[in-house]
Amino acid sequence: HEKRLDRKRKLTEIFYRRFYSLIKDNPKVRRILTEKEIENGTYTLVNRIVEEIMAKEQKIGRELTVEEIKEIIMKILNELSSTSYIG
Predict the structure, then answer these.
(1) What's the pLDDT at 81?
(2) Helices (DSSP H) in the chain: which residue ranges?
(3) pLDDT of the residue at 87
(4) pTM for this one?
(5) Can you say how many angstroms the Cα of residue 25 is from the centroid of all Cα atoms in its chain?
(6) Cα–Cα distance between 63 and 77 in angstroms, integer?
(7) What separation, in Å, do the N-terminal and C-terminal C-alpha atoms of the chain show?
């Protein structure tokens, strides 16, 4: 159980750092969102990704490959992009 918590914590840190800088460095995002909104949105995205990864790993009994993790990330990003902004 401790190992799973460590993995969850580590994945959350890695994804948060990666997505936060990507999102924060986007000029359009910086114009429309506050720093706190960017942080909260990034945490929401990262938590969703990490929860999905952890659930799938528990179900199949092993850590996911990089490819499998990428598939989960793309699936979640596609879901969010199709519902977030209607323009």
Answers:
(1) 79
(2) 2-24, 27-32, 35-60, 66-84
(3) 41
(4) 0.86
(5) 17
(6) 21
(7) 44
Output the six-digit token pair for 80: 């969010």
Return d(Cα 46, Cα 77) in angstroms, integer: 10
Q: Which residue has the tokens 């840190």?
A: 13
Domain count, the chain: 1
Show the domain range for 35. 2-84
User: What is the amino acid identity at position 46?
Assistant: V
What pLDDT does residue 84 have? 56
Q: Which two tokens stand for residue 75?
A: 């699936």
Specify whether the CB–CB gap between 76 and 48 falls below 8 A.
Answer: yes
Q: Give residue 3's identity as a one-letter amino acid code.
A: K
Q: What is the pLDDT of residues 20-71, one digit of tens each?
A: 999 999 999 889 999 999 999 999 999 999 999 999 999 999 999 999 999 9
Nearest in space to 72 (alpha carbons), one of 82, 85, 57, 87: 57
